[in-house]
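Appendix B, Record 12. Input sequence as logged:
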Amino acid sequence: MLIRLNAAQPYALGLFRFVIGLIFAIHGASSLFGVFNGRDTEVGAWPGWYAALIQLVCGTFVALGLGTRIAAFLASGSMAYAYFVVHQPEALTPVENGGETSAIFCWAFLLLVFTGPGALALDRLFKERNTQAPADETRREQSPAVSV
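Logged structural output:
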């Protein structure tokens, strides 16, 4: 049983990454554009508009698995800021201050910083393309430098 679970781990992590990134991006889009029953945030308003922009961009990057660790680091930091600056002054615990979503996003993205994107990420696709040497170069490396 554990062998099967361990084999599925990269795919479960990839699904986790995709879902968390997608939800985060939708949250940002709802604040920026008023879609999904959201409300428009005034362009340039601090911190709401910038937070929504970070949510949309970083959420999209995380969902696609592109620059996952960096995007997740920025997303985690923005959610830590949201929790400690916006929510925590209201009350001590997330349940009391309405900061549950910020806290969960913060820790979920921090986890992705350390685990990486998992399976089915664009990062891995680009990495595989860059590590494959063209056939001509491989033949040149294997052939002797001096021909007889």
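Residues 41 and 147 are 70 Å apart (CA to CA).
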